[in-house]
């Protein structure tokens, strides 16, 4: 790349998006305000007091405040109110961060990988199988082996979808959705075989993972090696996208495939690489679910519900994080806090656990629709912030410049 192209790239860097930050904070406030209203309406005792508000307004206001403050207080205390609560948040956030990074990487390549669920299932399946079927290995060998197999399974599952897109033109959305079903049904079948079914059980559940294949954790909480791997993955994705040639090609293809091809880049190869890396990160999320220590030090055994909805939640995490590694980490921590704090809300404030899902949906809706927030909040209307892009403007300008240079040389 010539110095002129590099200078043009540097000039296209945007200043810090203060308007986007303020709009995002306003989105959070609006989501929690609506959540408070839903709590008040859903509680029969509180809503009854509002029927005679004009005669005794203090009753309704006091009851509403007690309900909302108690619920949100439990949410905060259950997620970050103590060291143990914080570690519960990190444990729930680890797979969301990893899978969210995978989705963000695919988005930056202009690909919509909807198959993180299947990739996570395959990662969890192979990691758990290596964890319970292989015995008499030290932790320093057993854990890396199970980790490697799980990540490799996710990478192959995602790379296959990328190859189909590159070789046949099959749309990755359709392919990855169908592969989700294949992965889920494959696990369902495996759990009926002697190799996976726990001895003496007829319900679909696998044997417990060996302690030598379990992520080590700190005493006094659920903070384990899987969370550190998620943070390392975030740093790795940042370096890949911002400092490496592979990352530049991924962003270039995502910004403008035709210009990237004109500049001499292989769009097909980049597509396969991006989907493979995306699948590997989703597979890591499955590994974290399969090998993360539970309440008694051993992971939850492999079953149909082990992965949960990690793959689908990861799409939301990536969108909420603006497809940037640091943003994905924050979004994953937020969703982890909502999960850990939601359990405390349910037990301490008698608030339905489903309310946390509603809050997550509201937050994502308002963040994804900044114009709606600016319409509701008057002082934000004057700010003319551009909506976030999955790929940088600098990448588009750079690719165009490289293509122009190649054309001139030809």
Automatic annotation (TrEMBL):
Topology within the bilayer: Multi-pass membrane protein
Annotated transmembrane regions: 21-42, 92-114, 121-141, 147-166, 173-191, 223-241, 272-291, 303-321, 328-345, 357-377
UniProtKB keywords: Cell membrane, Membrane, Transmembrane, Transmembrane helix
Localization in the cell: Cell membrane
InterPro entries per record: ABC_transp_permease
A Pfam family per the record: BPD_transp_2
Organism of provenance: Luteococcus japonicus LSP_Lj1
Name of the protein in question: Nucleoside ABC transporter, permease protein 1
Keyword Membrane: yes
A single GO cellular-component term on record: plasma membrane
Entry's Gene Ontology molecular function annotations: transmembrane transporter activity
Domain of life: Bacteria
């Amino acid at each position: 790349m010539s110095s002129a192209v590099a200078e043009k790239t540097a000039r296209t860097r945007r200043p810090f998006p203060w308007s986007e930050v303020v709009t995002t904070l306003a989105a959070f406030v609006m989501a929690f305000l609506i959540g408070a209203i839903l709590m008040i309406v859903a509680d029969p005792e509180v809503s009854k007091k509002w029927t005679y508000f004009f005669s005794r307004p203090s009753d309704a206001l006091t009851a509403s405040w007690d309900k909302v403050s108690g619920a949100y207080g439990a949410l905060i205390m259950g997620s970050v109110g103590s060291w143990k609560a914080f570690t519960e948040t990190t444990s729930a956030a680890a797979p969301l961060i990893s899978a969210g990074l995978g989705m963000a990487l695919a988005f930056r390549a202009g690909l919509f990988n909807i198959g993180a669920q299947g990739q996570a299932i395959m990662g969890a399946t192979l990691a758990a199988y290596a964890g319970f079927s292989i015995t008499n290995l030290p932790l320093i060998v057993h854990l890396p082996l199970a980790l490697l197999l799980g990540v490799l399974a996710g990478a192959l599952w995602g790379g296959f979808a990328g190859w189909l897109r590159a070789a046949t033109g099959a749309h990755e959305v359709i392919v990855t959705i169908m592969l989700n079903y294949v992965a889920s049904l494959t696990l369902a079948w495996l759990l009926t075989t002697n190799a996976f079914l726990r001895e003496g059980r007829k319900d679909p559940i696998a044997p417990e993972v060996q302690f030598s294949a379990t992520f080590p954790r700190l005493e006094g909480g659920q903070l384990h090696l899987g969370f550190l791997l998620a943070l390392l993955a975030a740093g790795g994705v940042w370096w890949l996208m911002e400092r490496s040639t592979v990352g530049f090609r991924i962003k270039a293809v995502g910004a403008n495939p035709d210009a990237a091809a004109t500049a001499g880049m292989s769009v097909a190869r980049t597509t396969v690489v991006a989907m493979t890396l995306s699948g590997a990160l989703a597979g890591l999320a499955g590994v974290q679910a399969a090998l993360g220590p539970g309440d008694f030090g051993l992971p939850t055994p492999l079953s149909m519900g082990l992965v949960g909805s990690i793959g689908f939640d990861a799409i939301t995490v990536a969108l909420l994080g603006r497809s940037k590694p640091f943003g994905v980490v924050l979004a994953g921590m937020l969703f982890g806090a909502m999960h850990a704090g939601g359990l405390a809300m349910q037990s301490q404030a008698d608030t339905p656990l489903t309310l946390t899902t509603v809050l997550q949906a509201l937050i994502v809706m308002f963040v994804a629709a900044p114009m709606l927030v600016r319409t509701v909040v008057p002082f934000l209307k004057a700010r003319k912030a551009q909506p976030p892009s999955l790929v940088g403007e600098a990448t588009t300008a750079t690719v165009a410049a490289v293509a122009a240079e190649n054309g001139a040389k030809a």
